Amino acid sequence: MNLRHQRRLKIESSGRAFARLNQILRPVYGLIFLFKWRDEDADKLETSCPEGVWFANQTVNNACASVALLNIVNNVPDIDLGDHLRQFKLFTTDFTPALRGDAIGNFDFVKSVHNSFARKMDMLNADLQLKSDASSRRKSKAKNAEEDDAGFHFIAFVPVQNTVWKLDGLERQPQNLESITSDDWITHVVPELELRMAQYEEGQIEFAILALVKEPLAQLVPDLAQNIKSIISFSERLSQIKPDWEDFVHNVTDRDSETGHSSLSSLFVEYERLHEGIDQAELPPTIQMQLKNENVQELLAGRQELVTAQAGLRASIRDEAQTIRMENERAARRRHDKGLLAKGLLQVLGRIGKIKSVFGDVDNY
Fold first, then answer.
1. Distance from C-alpha of 208 to C-alpha of 35, rounded to nearest angstrom
2. Each residue of 45-69: pLDDT tens digit?
3. pTM attached to this predicted model
4. Least reliable range by pLDDT among 5-19, 115-129, 185-199
5. Which active-site residues does the annotation give?
6. I want to staple 154 with a disulfide (CB 3.0 to 4.6 A). Which of 33, 38, 68, 183 is the partner?
7. Cα separations in angstroms, 180 against 120, 126, 177
8. What's the angle, vertex CA 5, arms to CA 3 and CA 10, rounded to 5?
């Protein structure tokens, strides 16, 4: 699945930082908003889940982020979900939101991925209290219920069939925010985010937004392949008109631009796929028009423009490859449960009778 989170934007007050949403790479498949949960009036929700909208309730503990992710990816028509998620989406197509939530709880593939990032303490500190609060508030309908102890929660915003939806796993049904007529659906989400943030005093709490976007490498690879094929085409055209044109090219980097080689091969994990893409790439109409030119200087200038553009593509690919490695290393550290080490140390201290002396020293600070 060619997806990644672009960045987490930390927001401290409404009216600031929303402009940064426009800096996120396109296309944006959905937004995940982290906030301090509070109940809302049920009359804002749909009476039933609309056809064409995949929405699941959160029926298991400590899974609001996973549910939010699934509520986004299962509503994006043009992404490759992979075999596991594709079969799961097909299997749950006719389910109600509650049944989909139960299916998520029984979905071994999602459970194994989700739990691989959870430490023992995380599992013990599940958001059971949050769900309990939500249930009790719905039953009591108390408008002024005390919410200071409410937990943090992830909800999704996603465009589906020319409509922006808010998908909150703790709500029974989706909420229709607004109809849209363009791809700039994010601007329609901002008022909803500002409204939520205005419910808290400024500086009282921080919020975060996670954008689910297309993996940049998924676009950079074909762009680079097309660039290389265009440069090769210019070289072939120049050879037809002036066989000794290469005498004008003395830069090694310039020659490497036709192979995608140089330092890129050691950094780019999909180097082989790049060469497959070169064969399959199609020349843009503008390049095809330029190749009809017989002026050697203009052909050399057009080729040089592509070589210069390729330097930027190479830099972007190197940056993305480095980002992927850093994220993989961070995920590996996240999966390493240091709680087990702490538990083992405490057990050893307990066996040798040092627990009391250790905590006694701490109390003196």
1. 7
2. 888 898 899 999 998 877 788 899 9
3. 0.67
4. 5-19
5. 64, 153
6. 68
7. 43, 37, 10
8. 165
